[in-house]
Design a protein that fits this description.
The complex is a heterodimer of chains A (267) and B (247).
Chain A: H1 7-14, E1 19-30, E2 34-45, E3 49-54, H2 60-67, E4 75-80, E5 83-84, E6 92-95, H3 107-111, H4 125-138, H5 154-166, E7 172-176, H6 184-201, E8 204-209, H7 212-218, E9 221-226, E10 231-237, H8 248-265
Parallel strand pairs in A: 3-8, 3-9, 6-7, 7-8
Antiparallel strand pairs in A: 1-2, 1-4, 4-5, 9-10
Helix pairs in contact in A: 4-5, 5-6, 7-8
Chain B: H1 2-28, H2 37-49, H3 52-84, H4 86-100, H5 108-115, H6 119-143, H7 147-155, H8 160-194, H9 203-212, H10 216-245
Helix pairs in contact in B: 2-10, 3-4, 3-6, 3-8, 3-9, 5-6, 6-8, 7-8, 8-9, 8-10, 9-10
The chains are: A alpha/beta (267), B mainly alpha (247).
The structure holds adenosine-5'-triphosphate (ATP) and magnesium ion.
Magnesium ion binds next to helix 2 of chain A.
Keywords (chain B): Cell membrane, Membrane, Transmembrane, Transmembrane helix, Transport
Protein name (chain B): ABC transporter permease
InterPro entries (chain B): MetI-like, MetI-like_sf
């Protein structure tokens, strides 16, 4: 399914792949934990999948929340589509490690949750229904619209959470270890699905993960976060053609390079 | 099959014990014969055919409803505030724990003095008894909300009203319903003694009135009715809880 480009998209396409998200000199401090990270500058371009890789507790989730406009940095600035970001942008969406569906809503209502909120862009009822249906179909849950979250398996619930993000037609999808609670087989399916749908939705992704293989299989670019306080230590552009499973040598070489850098970063 | 019959076996055993106890007591004090199952059932059938008992029941149930609604109107906002604001919670927790442990009936004389005789002091006592389980369960529900739901609401730039009505309230409804169930149990227990003072109708009044009329079979029948209605109310509250969870 190919969604037609909106007029605004066409105008923006004419420019030279501008950054969806741009952050300069971000630091975050909190009483009790001190400075969690500092000097973080990064950009995510349109339709780009960027993986943010780092060890447990180095501040990835916090950085993600700052980038999403959910928390204020101590220093530095974030801009979204060229505008300074003060609060979460309506064209960004979140996916968490847990599906966090609302158990009192049917799947379709979960997917459409919040689209009618006061600060969301106005859209007609029909248009919203269409977006919800398209998102549900894209994640393979067609026919389960009336199911309650308690009736979905873990994998299906995470698909629904992905659909909830897609229904917002995000310019940028923030995903915080979205698949780390799933079994290996479901995780692999979900990684393929993520790449597939964000390409079809023309969305960029910032994917937080501590799984090196996930970063290599999914991302166009990998950022390594490490140190104390945390900072971006190294960056790789992944130009291995997809499906990347078909290029084991290139994948292995990149993997070794990342592992080597990790060993340095943790020193 | 046996599983279905067991509750009836329990009730039957209780009825036999009741008959034996009343029989033994009747041998000592003849008037106790009217406590036994036979006359009680007769009295119950008589009462069910008349209008009096139904009016007392209707009035009692109406008081339960009013008391519960007042308790909900006070308990839910206070519970939400307790759950959301650490400051409010720290300020009020000792007070609430203190007030909760005072038997509502101890307020009776003061309630009658301040509110006068009639329904008002009964409403006050019932609401006062029921507000604590609702308040505490609401606060616990707020504390157990999935933080990601709130993050989701914030990522949608939800207004305070949207966050409250679309996330927090439905998110704590299961807890509120647990509170309602506990509250109904307490209200039903407090109701009868509360209706024994200053009112001239209701199941509590009916018990006292039966005693004064020396109609002991009526009194026993009223006890059966009270137990049965309480059971029904609890059952209703339970099934409401189950339906909400869609389990
Ligand atoms: N606002 C805050 N208040 C207190 N502690 C905080 C705050 N923000 C972050 N922290 C602490 O900073 C540390 C790193 O947080 P964060 O969750 O961002 O790391 P992470 O890299 O995502 O870790 P993980 O891999 O476990 O998800 C944690 O120990 C967390 O408790
Ligand atoms: Mg994290």
């Amino acid at each position: 399914m190919n969604r037609p480009l909106a007029e605004a998209d066409v105008i923006r396409c004419a420019e030279q792949t501008p950054a969806v998200l741009e952050a300069r000199g971000l630091s975050y401090a909190h009483a009790g934990i001190g400075t969690l990270f500092e000097g973080v500058s990064l950009a995510v371009r349109r339709r780009e999948i960027v993986a943010l890789l780092g060890s447990s507790g180095c501040g990835k989730s916090t950085l993600l929340r700052v980038l999403a406009g959910l928390e204020q940095p101590a220093t530095g600035s974030v801009s979204f589509l060229g505008e300074p970001l003060a609060s979460p942008h309506p064209r960004s969406a979140l996916v968490f490690q847990q599906p966090s569906l609302l158990p009192w809503l049917k799947l379709a209502d979960n997917v459409g949750f919040g689209l009618d909120f006061a600060h969301q862009p106005r859209a007609g009822r029909e248009a919203l229904q269409g977006r919800i249906a398209a998102a549900i179909e894209a994640v393979g849950l067609k026919g389960r619209e009336a199911a309650y979250p308690a009736q979905l398996s873990g994998g299906m619930a995470q698909r629904a959470a992905l659909a909830r993000a897609l229904a917002r037609e995000p310019e940028l999808l923030f995903a915080d270890e979205p698949f780390s609670a799933l079994d290996a087989i479901t995780r692999a399916e979900m990684q393929d699905l993520l790449v597939d749908v964000v390409h079809r939705w023309h969305s960029a992704v910032l994917l937080v993960t501590h799984d090196i293989d996930e970063a290599i299989l999914v991302a166009d670019r990998i950022l390594l976060m490490g140190g104390r306080p945390g900072h971006l230590a190294q960056e790789w552009t992944v130009d291995i053609p997809r499906p990347r499973e078909d290029h084991p040598e290139a994948v292995t070489a990149l993997r070794l390079s990342i592992l080597g850098a990790l060993r340095h970063a943790s020193l | 099959m046996v599983g279905i019959l067991l509750p009836f076996a329990g009730l039957l055993a209780a009825a036999l014990l009741w008959a034996a106890g009343a029989g033994w007591l009747g041998a000592v004090t003849p008037v106790a014969a009217s406590f036994s199952p036979g006359p009680t059932v007769d009295a119950l059938l008589q009462l069910l055919q008349g209008r009096d008992l139904w009016e007392h029941v209707a009035l009692s149930l109406q008081r339960v409803a009013v008391g519960l609604v007042i308790a909900l109107l006070l308990g839910i906002p206070l519970g939400v505030l307790t759950g959301l604001s650490p400051l409010f919670s720290r300020t009020t927790t000792p007070l609430f724990q203190f007030a909760r442990m005072i038997s509502p009936l101890s307020w009776m004389p003061i309630a009658v003095m301040v509110l006068g005789v009639g329904d008002a002091p009964v409403y006050f006592l019932l609401a006062f008894a029921a507000v604590w389980p609702i308040l505490l369960n609401t606060a616990a529900g707020v504390a157990q909300l999935d933080p990601n739901w709130l993050l989701l609401a914030r990522s949608l730039s939800a207004t305070r009203r949207e966050t409250l009505l679309r996330v927090i309230l439905p998110g704590i409804t299961a807890h509120i319903l647990t509170g309602v169930r506990l509250a109904i149990g307490i209200i039903w227990i407090v109701l009868v003694p509360a209706e024994m003072l200053g009112v001239s109708a209701g199941l509590g009044y009916f018990i006292l009135d039966s005693r004064d009329r020396l109609a002991y079979s009526d009194l026993m029948a009223a006890i059966l009715v009270i137990g049965f209605l309480g059971y029904l109310l609890d059952h209703a509250a339970r099934s409401l809880h189950r339906r909400w969870l869609h389990a």
